[in-house]
Specification:
By secondary structure, this protein is an alpha+beta fold. It is built from 15 helices and 10 strands. The protein binds zinc ion. The site of zinc ion has 8 residues, from loops.
Amino acid sequence: MGTTLQKKITIEFDCQFRVCVAQSSFSSIMKAFLMLLPQLLEGFFQKVLVGFGEYEMVQERKSFVCQCCGNNREFIWKTRHGKATIILTWFRYITLKQLQVQCSACGSKQYITRTLLGMEPRKRIPEETRRKLALMGALTSYRVSEKFGNMFGWAIDKMTIWRSVQRVGAGIDFVLDENEVPRCEADGTGIGITGIAKRGKELKVLVQYKEGGGIRVAGIDIGNYNGSWDKLFQKSIEVIKKFKEPFLLLTDGDTSIFESLKGKVTVLVQRCLWHIPYQAQYALWSDGVKRKSREWLHVVAELTEICASRPLVDCPDTIKAMIESKKARLKKVIDYCQEKEFKRCVSYLENAREDMFTALENRLAGKTTSRVERLFRTVNMRVNVSKWSTEGALNVTKVRLAYYYNGFDA
Ligand SMILES: [Zn+2]
C-alpha cells in the first residue's frame, strides 16, 4: 500500500447477493461464483477503501497532500461514492466509485482512491497485476496465458498480457552486481525475428557468476550479428571499476566483445586455455615482475605446459589423469606466485582456475561447455513459439531471464 498507516483497520463486510443457480452440480456452482466474483470484489474494495478513507480523515496529518497547495491536514469529504473508475485486479477489471475530498485551505477537490491503493494517478493496471501478467506471458505463449486465465475465471485478454510483458520488460535493467564474483561469460546466439530470415538477429548475453555457484544475467541485447556489445556493458563499466580483483571475462572468441571495453577498464579475456599464459604475462607485468627474469620464465613456461592441449587424446581415463596432473601442477605455480607475492598473478590464476579445464572435463561428461547454452535454450523455448519484433523479443526475454536467473517474481 502506498499509505504509511501503522494501524490495522477492521472492516465489517457483510455481503448479500442474489444469485440464480439452475443446478447443484459442481460446474454450475463454480460458474455462478465467477458471475458473483466481480460484484464481490468491487464491494470488498469499495468497503476497505472507504474504511481507510474514514480513518485518514480523522487523522490530524493525512498521508496525501492537496495537489494544489500542499496542505496535508484540513480536508472535508466530497463523496465516498463518486465518479466511477476502473482498475485491473488479479482476476478482472472492476469498477470503483471514487472517494473524493476537498481541501479546506484552497478549496480544490481531488480523488484519493488511487492514493489509497498506492497507484499512480489515472493508471488502470496496478504494478502487481502487471508483473503477474508479464511473468505469465514470459513463461508461456500469450494465447496459452489467456487460455489458462480463462479456465480459472480470469477475464484478461492476450493483448493486455502482451502489453504487460512489454511494459515490465522495458523496465528491467540488467547490470553487474558488485557484490558477486568479478567473473563473466559473454555469448551470443541467433534468434528468430519476424520479417527477417530465420535466425536473423543475435541475442547477446552477459552472464555473471554468483558466489557459491549459479549465474545471474548482467546484460542483454538483441541486435545485428557482429553488432556492438556496448549496450550490454555500458551500465556495468562503473561496477567493473569497483571490483577489487581483475575482472575476468570468458568468451569463445568474439573479439568485438573486448573492443567495447578497451581502454575503459582492465578486463582479462579468457577465450581458451591457450590464452592463459598470455594473460598471466599481463598479470605478472602488473605485479612488476621483470620480463624474462628467472621467476617470469618459470611461471610462463609452467603455464604454457599446463595449458598445452593434446587434441588427439580421446581415452577418458587418460584425459582424467591429464586433468589431475595439470591441476596439481597449476596449484604449484599458484603457490610459487603466492610465495613470491605476485598478487595480481595469484588472483588471476585463482580466478581462471575453476574454468581452465572445464572444456576437457565436459568432453568427458559429454556436456556443452558454456553455462550460457542452457540460458539460450530457456530463451528459445519461448521465442520459438511466436513471431516477434526485435523489441517484443527483447522484452519477453528480459522478463523470462529475470525470473529464471535474477529473482524476479510476481
Ligand atoms: Zn489545497
